[in-house]
Write a structure and sequence with these properties.
This protein is of the alpha/beta class. 37% of the residues lie in helices and 17% in strands. The protein has a three-stranded parallel β-sheet with strand order 1-2-3. The chain starts with a helix and ends with a strand.
């Protein structure tokens, strides 16, 4: 997270509320939401009409790899997916 935070125009936030409420608590709306694996990729896209980007991480050793594959396959049809 520290390395990502060093990139220009990117900020990492820690919230004390559900991300879907960001428009209520933060008057400055963001243009893009990026996450690894989250339903917020969909909810923010539809609630605030902002771009969502999924970052596909290495989960090859995960017990639920097949389920994660299915989610990323669905993401591909809904948003940009970046593989690390």
């Amino acid at each position: 997270l520290e390395k990502i935070n060093e990139i220009n125009n990117i900020s990492i936030m820690t919230l004390n509320y559900p991300i879907e409420m960001i428009g209520i608590y933060n008057p400055a709306m963001y243009k893009t939401f990026i996450s690894f694996y989250s339903t917020a990729l969909f909810t923010l896209k539809y609630i605030y009409n902002i771009e969502s980007i999924a970052i596909k991480f290495n989960y090859n050793n995960a017990k639920n790899k097949k389920s994660i594959d299915e989610v990323y396959n669905y993401y591909i049809n809904e948003m940009k997916v970046i593989e690390l």
